[in-house]
Amino acid sequence: MNDIIVRIAGMIGIFSVVMVLSAMLIWVERRLLALWQDRYGPNRVGYFGLLQVVADMIKIFFKEDWIPPFADKKIFVVAPAIVVICSLMSMAIVPFGQNLQIVDMNIGLLFFLAMSAMAVYSVVLGGWASNSKYSLIGGMRAAAQMVSYEAFMGLALMGPVMMAGSFELGDIVEAQKKVWFFIPQVLSFVAFFVAGIAETHRLPFDLPEAESEIVAGFHAEYSGMKFGMFFVGEYIGVIMISALVTALYFGGWLGPAFLPGPAWFFLKMMFFITLFVLMRGSLPRPRYDQLMSWAWKIFLPLSLLNLVVTGGILVATS
Q1: What is residue 81's three-state secondary structure?
Q2: DSSP 220-285
Q3: Whole-number Å distance between alpha carbons of 113 and 122
């Protein structure tokens, strides 16, 4: 009974931290973009503009909850919730420290891939239910992008899995005590990180919502809290990909003893979140055909090459 209570308390605690962190990322992103683009950024509401997030949340909560009369109302309302639920479910497998995760699954990475595949339904259904040509194009783009990039994302993940001999993230972190997998699995790391950017629809791979081409794509007809859920889901996705890169390739919570394990995990994760923001502020958006071409002609062969080389080395040295 006590074990169940501890697990429920841990689940509420970790989910609460993730939700607060995803809200604070709005402020962090604006401040970093302002720094790199030589402008002020949020600086009027609270100290260093810290309360700008609160102001934005109040605005979203009190905006008119409008549903277009031409939309499929039930699906239109349900679609934004899917991405938030799937993203939060994925966070359950992340080991923020030794014995500091919600669920210690022996199929942890497979669970993440399943949740990632489910999340695309949010975008596709949102685009379809809006009954708008721009939204539908955005939803179709998201579906094609997901199919293309998830194909080699799964293959890229097999490199660390083969080296650790486990799908469990805790075991993969423990297997990096001698050397982080970033060094022997650099091709896998590059492929997974690029696929992660595409999965979260972040610049430069935000073509499902490209404002200059299709207005705002799948969420063009959304407003208020329903739009906010798409927004929060995207930020939780950024946290999730950064946390997975940390655990899979950069030793997770492992680090010198002068800091506790969760602190090392947080610092490494924040580095990759900052990288997400830097790419948004510096890289141009490619054409859609280029995006598809890179997936099938560059990253899929690279992932297969990494799989063959890793398997060959493991067989030769076993």
Answers
A1: helix
A2: TT--HHHHHHHHHHHHHHHHHHHHHHHHHHS-TT---TTS-HHHHHHHHHHHHHHHHHHHHHHPPP
A3: 15
Query: Is-contact 91 14, C-beta < 8 A?
Result: yes
**Would the pLDDT of 207 be above 80?**
no
Task: Label residue 22 left, alpha or beta by phi (over 0 means left) and psi (-120 to 50 means alpha).
Answer: alpha
CA proximity to 7, closest of 92, 94, 78 = 92
pLDDT at 1: 63
Bridge partners of 100? 97
Least confident of 15-24, 154-163, 237-246, 291-300: 15-24
* Lowest pLDDT segment from 183-197, 216-230, 259-273: 216-230
For residue 92, the tally of other CB atoms under 10 A from its CB is 18
Strand, helix or coil at 97?
strand
Q: Residue 294: which H helix or E strand, with range?
A: helix 288-294
> Which pLDDT tens digit goes with each residue over 225-245?
888 888 888 888 888 899 999
| Contact of 285 with 203, CB cutoff 8 Å | yes
- Which residue type sits at 22? S
Lowest mean pLDDT among 173-177, 195-199, 214-218, 309-313: 214-218
Question: Helices (H), strands (E): how many in the chain?
Answer: 12, 0
Q: Do residues 121 and 160 touch, judged by C-beta distance below 8 A?
A: no
Who's near 178: CB < 8 A, 6+ residues apart?
none
What pTM does this model have? 0.88
